[in-house]
Amino acid sequence: MLNRITTIALLAVSMGALAACSGSNTVSTPAPAEAPRIVQPGAPGEDSRAFTGETLDDVAGATFTEADVAFMQGMIPHHQQALEMTALVWKHATNEGVRQMALRMEISQRDEIKMMKQWLTDRGQPLEMPMGDMDGMHAHHNMGGGMHHSMPGMLTPQQMEELANARGMAFDRLFLEGMIQHHQGAIDMVETLFNAPGAAQESTIFKFAEDVDSDQQMEIDRMRGLLRQLR
Amino acid sequence: MRETEIRNQKRYCMKDFAQTWRLGLLMVALLVAAASTGVEAVAQETDTAEPEVVRPQTPVQPNAPALEWDPNDPRIGLAAGWSDAESAIMGLELLAAIPRAEGFFNPEEPTDRRFNNTDLAFQGNRLIQGNYNGFQVIDISNPAGPVYELSVVCPGGQGDVSIYGDLIVMSAQETRGRLDCGIEGVADPISAERMRGVRIFDISDMANPKQVAAVQSCRGSHTHTIVTQPGDTENIYVYIQGTSRVRPGDELPGCSTGNPDENPETALFRIEVVKVPLANPAAAEIVNMPRIFANEQGDIDGLWQGGNHGEGTQRSRITNQCHDITAYPDIGLAGGACSGNGILLDISDPENPRRISEEADPNFAYWHSATFNNDGDVVVFTDEWGGGASPRCRTTDPATWGANAIFRINAEGQMELASYYKIPVPQTDTENCVAHNGSLIPVPGRDIMAQAWYQGGLSLMDFTDPENPFEIAFFDRGPMSADTLYTGGYWSTYWYGGRLYGAEIMRGIDVFKLAPSEHLSEAEIRAAEAVVMDEFNAQLQPKVEWEPSADVAQAYLDQMVRSKRILNSRAQETEQVLGGNASATELDDMAALIEADLMKIEARELGGDAERMRKLAGVLRGMAAQQ
Q: Which of A99, B392, B450, B483 has the fewest CB atoms below 10 angstroms from its CB?
C-alpha cells in the first residue's frame, strides 16, 4: 500500500515537472521564501518540537488513498449519468422548474467532472476504475453488461429507458424521482468515503466530498418540493 | 530569491528526466482514458441528432441589475502569471510582496490546497497568518520588509486564527486534524486522536508555542470568533462556527445529525460557545450550544429553509449554520453571517447570545461574513456565491450577486437594506472572485472598508453614505493562469498599524500603504495611520476613538471641502489655524466660529455639514485642551 502511494506520488511529481519544463503552461513556478524556524506543537499540555532541515520534506503529511481514487473514479460515471438524464429534460420536460433545476445540475456536474478528472490526472491515476476493483466498491455490473458499471443510486438501463420513453408530466415526475434516487446515491458514496480508513484526509477531496454532500442534499430538498407541486 | 528560483527549476527538470519512461506510459494511458470519456462530446452528439431540442442557454435571467464598468479600467486585460502577473493599482502603494515560505508550500504541486493561506490576526509587531497546515508568525516591525519568524505545523484547515494576549486560537475542521498536530492524518474513521474544533496555543514563548487546549465540537470549526465582555478581565469566549459534516457520536459523545423533526438533538442549527478562563486556558470548554435560529414557536430551524425567493432570484442555502460571526462588544452586538440569513445577536451576555433580528435577501446565495461601521449603526454583510472557488465577477454575473449588502441598523436593532456593492470591474473566468473578508480603515468621519475579493483583488469601499457606496482604491493582479481556474487571490485584507496586509492564498503576503488621491487626502491618511491598536482580530471589532490632532481636524475639513458643505472662507481660516502653531486661544476661537456656523446650519440659515462641523469643533477644543 505504502509503496503504491509512493509511486503515485512520484508520478504526480513527474506530471508537475512536465509542466515546469515544457514552458507550455502559463503558470510561472513560484519560488518559496526561505523557511524560518519550524515547530510542531504536541497534544494539549505537551511541548512543541523543532523541525530540522532534513525533516522539512515531511511537512506534506497525509495524502490520498485508494479509497479516494475509487471515489473519484466512481463519481465520474455517476455524474455522467446525471448529464444523460438532463439531456432528456431538454426534449421532454414540460415543467419550467424542472428545466431550471436540470440546467443548474448540468452546469455544476460538468464542472465537477472536469475537476475530478483533473484531480485524478494530477495524481497520475486512471480516470476509470479497473474492472477488478469494482467489487471492493460494492458496485455491480449492469444487467446489460458491457463496459458500463453502476454506482450507488444510478438508474438501471430499464429505468433510463422508462425515462426516455416518458412524456409530459409523467416525464417530469420520473425525472425528479430518478434524480432524487441518483443524488441519494452520491450522498451514500460520500458516507462510504468518510467511513473508509484513511480516506478524505487530503484537503481537496475533503472539501469536494463535503460539497457533493451538501449541494446534492439541497437539490434533493428542492426536487422534493417540485414533486409535491406536480402531484 | 533568484537563485532559489533557478534551483527549483533544475530540481523539477532532473526528476523529469529520470522518469521520462514512466511519463510516456502515463500519457498514453491518459490520452486513451480521455478519449473514451469526454462528456461534452456525448452531449453535443445528442444536440445535433435532435435539432428540435430546446435547451435554455442560461438559468432564468436573474432579476438583478447587470454589472456596469468603465471600459478603460486598468484592471481589464491584465496578463496572467503566478509571480509575474501584471497588476493595476489606484490609491495605494505596494510596499512588499513575500511568497509563501518553504515548508508551507509544496514545490511539487504549488496549488496543493493543504498549504493554502487563510485568515490573519495581529499583535504588536507580529502578523499571524493562518494556513491549512497550521499558522505562521511574521515580523512586521518594518512593514515594507516583513520577515517570516516562525512556522507552526498543525494541520486541520481552515486554520483561521485569532490572537488574544498570550493565546492564539485556531480553527480545525478537516477529518485529518490530529490532537497532537501530527501531519499523518487520522486513518481510522472513528478515532480519539482526531481533532475537529478549536485549538488554543499558549504563545508566551513565541519560539515554542504550546497547545494548551483542544476543544472538540461536532462539526469542527470552520471559523471562530473571540468574544469579550467589557469589564470581564478573567474570561474570554470563543464562538465556534461549524459548517462541516457532523461526526459520529461514537467519536464524540452527543454528536448526531439530521433534521430537527427527526432528531431534536441534532448538532445542526446551532453554534457552540467556549468559555476560556484566562488564568487556566487548559480548562476551556463548551458552556452553551445556543439554538440561535429558533423561532417564536420554538422550532430550532426557524429561519431560511433553503431555496430561491421567487423567479429570477438567488437560491439561498438553508440556515443550519453560521459561516462567520463578527462581535462588536463595545456596542453589545454581533453580526452573524449564517448561510441563508444575516442576523444580529445581543452579546451583552456572551455566554448566552440572543438573536434580535434577521434578514434574508433575494440576491444572497450564502451569507458569509459581517463588518460593522465604527458607529455600529451600519453593517456590511458579504455573500460568498459560488463558495469562493468559482468565478463570480464575470461580465454576465449580476451586480448584486456575490456582492456586499449594506444595512442600516435602527434603534430597535432591526436591519434596513441600504444598497449593494460589488467590485465595479469584471474579472476573467479563470479568476475565482466574490465578496470576502475585510476590515475598516479608520479615517475619521468616513466609513471605509478594505476588502478581499479573491483573484478580484483588493478594493476599498467607501460606505459613509450607506445608500451610495463607491470604490476609492484598488489593487488587482492578473489571473494565476490564463487557462486554468485555481483557487487563489486574497482571503483577507486587513488594516493594522497604518498599513494594509493582504493574505494571498497562493502567492503569500502583500503589504500596502494608502496613497493620496481625489478620494483620500494626506490628512485623512495620516489620521488613519495614527490610530494605534495593540492587537487586531477582524472578527472582534474594536471601537476606534481618534485623539484630537491637526490631522484629524484637517481630515474633517477636507471632507467638507470635497463635498462643498463648508464656507470657503471658513475652510481657509481653519486651515491656517491648523497649519501654524496655533495657541489654545486661537484654537478655541476657531472652534467658536465653527460652532456659530453649526447653529446656523441647524437653524437652516446656512448650508453645510452639521455632523462634521460638530466633530471639527470638538477636535479643535480637544487640541486646545491638550496645550
A: B483
Q: Measured between CB atoms, does B622 come within 8 Å of chain A? A: no
- Return the C-alpha cell found at B162: 485569532
ipTM above 0.95, yes or no: no
| Letter string b/e over residues B182-208, b meaning 16 or more CB atoms within 10 A of that residue's CB | bbbbbeebeeeebbbbbbbbbbeeeeb
The answer to whether B22 contacts A11, with C-beta atoms less than 8 Å apart, is yes
Q: Judge: B148–A35 Cβ closer than 8 Å, yes or no.
A: yes
Burial state string for B147-157 with b = 16 or more CB within 10 A and e = fewer than 16: ebbbbbbbbbb
pLDDT at position A110 over 60: yes
Name the residue of chain B whose CA is nearest to A215's CA: B317
Asked whether the predicted pLDDT for residue B518 surpasses 70, the reply is yes
Q: Does B152 touch chain A (CB under 8 A)?
A: yes
Mean pLDDT, residues B152-179:
96
Q: Which of residues 124-143 of B touch A (CB under 8 A)?
A: 132-133, 136-137
| Distance of residue B179 Cα from the nearest chain A Cα, in angstroms | 5
Instruction: Give me the residue from A33, A43, A59 closest to B148, CB to CB.
Output: A33
The full 3-state SS of chain A, as one line of letters, equals CHHHHHHHHHHHHHHHHHHHHHCCCCCCCCCCECCCEEEECCCCCCCCEEECHHHHHHHHCCCCCHHHHHHHHHHHHHHHHHHHHHHHHHHHCCCHHHHHHHHHHHHHHHHHHHHHHHHHHHCCCCCCCCHHHHHHHCCEECCCCCCCEECCCCCCHHHHHHHHHCCHHHHHHHHHHHHHHHHHHHHHHHHHHHHCCCCCCCHHHHHHHHHHHHHHHHHHHHHHHHHHHHC
Those residues with Cβ within 8 angstroms of residue B564's Cβ, 6 or more apart along the chain or in another chain: none
Instruction: Indicate the pLDDT class of residue B59, thresholds 50, 70 and 90.
Output: low
Yes or no: say if B571 and B557 are a contact pair by the CB < 8 Å rule: yes
Instruction: Write down the pLDDT at residue B3.
Output: 33
3-state secondary structure of B522: helix
Of B52 and B303, the one with more pLDDT? B303
CA atoms within 13 A on the CB side of B372: 28
Please report, in angstroms and rounded to a whole number, the separation of the first and last CA atoms in chain B.
51
pLDDT in tens, A174-198: 999 999 999 999 999 999 999 999 9
Summarize the confidence of residues A82-103 as an average pLDDT. 92
Q: Compute the nearest-CA separation of B152 from chain A (Å).
A: 5
Would you state the pLDDT for residue A143? Answer: 38
Residue B101 DSSP symbol: B
Average pLDDT, chain B: 91
What residue type is B564 in one-letter code? K
Q: Is the pLDDT assigned to residue A20 strictly greater than 60?
A: no
Q: Helix (H) and strand (E) counts for chain B? A: 8, 30
> Is the pLDDT score of B151 beyond 50?
yes
Query: pTM value?
Result: 0.88
